[in-house]
Design brief:
The chain is an alpha+beta fold and about 180 residues long. The protein contains 7 helices and 6 strands; from the N terminus they run αββαβααββαβαα. The chain has a 3-stranded antiparallel beta sheet with strand order 1-2-3. α1 packs antiparallel against α2. It is extended. The mean pLDDT is about 85.
Amino acid sequence: MSMTSAALLVALFALVVGGAVFFRVWYAWRQRRLITCPDNEKPAAVRLDALRAAASAWAGREDLRLSECSRWPEKQDCGQECLRQIQKGPGECLVQTLVTRWYEDKACSCCGKPIHEVAWADQRPGLRAPDGRYMAWTDVPPETLPDVFKTHAPVCWDCLVVQRVAREHPDDVTPRPPREQLYS
């Protein structure tokens, strides 16, 4: 093997390893998080600048900054003190983690089926509002999660789909009341 071939292999290896580190850090920091805003002590949904975090990790340091906050634009020039909460427990404040924990030991309020694991990739469960509306998590602003957890009921993916079909095609579906109304 020539000297230039060896140098190319080393450079390629460094690029692959560096790329893997970059992607891993970007992937870990890209998700939405729920923090308590230090300014008003209320929930706020934030996203980190994942590209900046990945680039800084690749350079051997950690540089976290927000790219989105539910309190922006009016508080866009804040000191971003909430980053300490994220650094203290990066996975603890993930919206997906909080919602997954909420479903633990819960059953569907329609069919009564236990909701064991949340399949975030394809069959996401939903929820039922106090007024009876069925909702997907994409319809819920993350900063409202603490209140939603107190007031809404869990719904399995199957029942969420049935309710959506019933709403969109009412002539094709015969609805039944939620489980608690059947047995009360």
